[in-house]
């Protein structure tokens, strides 16, 4: 259960059997409790299309995972201690590609096409990815096949994943793979190598430059990322057969980020509430109806403008409704939000203050569906969500220091139904901790 600690006894290894329904795409995993993400432990998750369901591009000659992220020399426990003392996270010391500060290599053969699944697994920095003398064809974003747009470089914000195709159409030698920070005072850059089979020449020439602090460049690129309506997703029917733009909205929720001091220490929040974890996982408290763990609607569905305060923030929304969420960012940084358990349509983003008239500029036809979205400085981002998954779902900043210091909340997707069609019971081998310890789950 995210945001709380249920102790797990040590074992030599684990085996996970996963059955994935209605999902494809490129994702990654990481340790999500405390500040463990800073220690590493990342890995790729590839969910392939079922046999017989067409994919909108030919099988590549190779399929590579590329994990990029900012890196700190300090141990994760030292970074956590710094945050616990009320300090902010410092600037990173470097950038890694697949765990290496230099020398990460992608091997290719001339004339062949390869798929790169690129994820930003870092703690706070947006990154730009590019390959010397090669263009990238974007084909998939977090489970959605996209229009196959060509890019010379790609902004990848914290927590996001992209799939691109590259064709080895240059002379056989080594070429720079470049990752650099975005929207930072000091631009940090690292390089890897795209190595052609038979190459005898090292990468040479100037390292390809990329965008640095330009917001409009990134915003225009984000708007160009759209769904391929004719491609199949996890099912054989086209992705465009679900007409999200024609569904009436039931509710509009506005989330604004908050930053400030509480008891002399740096904290962050959403709509003035800085999240504190409960002593019992929220889903267990909800399932067993344990009182006193959290309060429903302990966070407003609009910014209050009030001062920052501590609480275990839970907002209730109704199952099988269609809602709009606006992320407002009045700060001078790019922010990134992730919602567990869902994908959503990114229907709009722009600078300034969101107004109801902003809906006139929404993309209601082929907006990309994904689970992590950026919000530019002094800007807003709008998403649509079909609430088809009952449960207690974490919505959080992907800037891990801000998440750790309170910029997160839970959406309680609620139904009064007890039908197994809507939600399965907790497995009988679940670890019960906190105030749920000693209780009995229903058998499967």
UniProtKB/TrEMBL annotation:
Name of the protein = L-ascorbate oxidase homolog isoform X1
Q: Does the keyword Repressor apply?
A: no
- Record flagged with keyword Chaperone: no
The record's listing under InterPro entries reads: Cu-oxidase-like_N (IPR011707), Cu-oxidase_2nd (IPR001117), Cu-oxidase_C (IPR011706), Cu-oxidase_fam (IPR045087), Cupredoxin (IPR008972), CuRO_3_AO-like (IPR034275)
Keyword line: Glycoprotein
* Any single Pfam family the record assigns to this protein: Cu-oxidase_3
UniProt record similarity statement: Belongs to the multicopper oxidase family.
The source organism is: Camelina sativa (False flax)
List, for all copies, the residue spans of the domain called Plastocyanin-like.
2-50, 63-199, 280-416
Q: SUPFAM superfamilies in the record, alphabetically?
A: Cupredoxins
């Amino acid at each position: 259960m995210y945001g709380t600690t249920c102790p797990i006894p040590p074992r030599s290894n684990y085996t996970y059997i996963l059955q994935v329904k209605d999902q494809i795409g490129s994702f990654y995993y990481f340790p999500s409790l405390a500040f463990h993400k800073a220690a590493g432990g990342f890995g790729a998750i590839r969910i392939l299309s079922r046999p017989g369901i067409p994919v909108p591009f030919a099988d590549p000659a190779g399929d590579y995972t590329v994990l990029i992220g900012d890196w700190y020399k300090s141990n994760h426990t030292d970074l956590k201690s710094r945050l616990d003392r009320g300090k902010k996270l410092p600037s990173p010391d470097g950038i890694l590609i697949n765990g290496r500060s230099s020398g990460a290599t992608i091997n290719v053969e001339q004339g062949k096409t390869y798929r790169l699944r690129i994820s930003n697994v870092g703690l706070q920095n947006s990154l730009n990815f590019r390959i010397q003398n090669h263009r990238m064809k974007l084909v998939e974003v977090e489970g959605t096949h996209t229009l196959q747009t060509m890019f010379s470089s790609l902004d990848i914000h914290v927590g996001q994943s992209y799939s691109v195709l590259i064709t080895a159409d240059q002379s056989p030698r080594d070429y720079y793979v470049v990752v650099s920070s975005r929207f930072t005072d000091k631009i940090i850059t690292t390089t890897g190598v795209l190595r052609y089979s038979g190459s005898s020449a090292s990468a040479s020439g100037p390292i390809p430059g990329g965008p640095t602090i330009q917001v409009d460049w990134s915003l225009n690129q984000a708007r160009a990322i759209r769904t391929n309506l004719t491609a199949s997703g996890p099912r054989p029917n086209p992705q465009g057969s679900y007409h999200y733009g024609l569904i009436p909205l039931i509710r509009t929720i506005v989330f604004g980020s908050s930053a400030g001091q509480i008891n002399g220490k740096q904290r962050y929040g959403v709509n003035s509430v800085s999240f504190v974890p409960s002593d019992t996982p929220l889903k267990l408290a909800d399932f067993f109806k344990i009182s006193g763990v959290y309060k429903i609607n302990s966070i407003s569905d609009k910014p209050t403008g009030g001062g920052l305060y501590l609480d275990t923030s839970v907002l209730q929304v109704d199952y099988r409704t269609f809602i709009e969420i606006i992320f407002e960012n009045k700060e001078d940084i790019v922010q990134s939000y992730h919602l567990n358990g869902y994908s959503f349509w990114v229907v709009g983003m722009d600078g300034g203050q969101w107004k109801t008239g902003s809906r006139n500029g929404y993309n209601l036809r082929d907006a990309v569906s994904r689970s992590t979205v950026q919000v530019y400085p002094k800007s807003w981002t709008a998403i649509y969500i079909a609430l088809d998954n009952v449960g207690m779902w974490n919505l959080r900043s992907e800037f891990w220091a801000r998440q750790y210091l309170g910029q997160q909340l839970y959406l309680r997707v609620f139904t009064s139904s007890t039908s197994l069609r809507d939600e399965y019971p907790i497995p009988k081998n679940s670890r019960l901790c906190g105030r749920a310890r000693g209780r009995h789950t229903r058998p499967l």
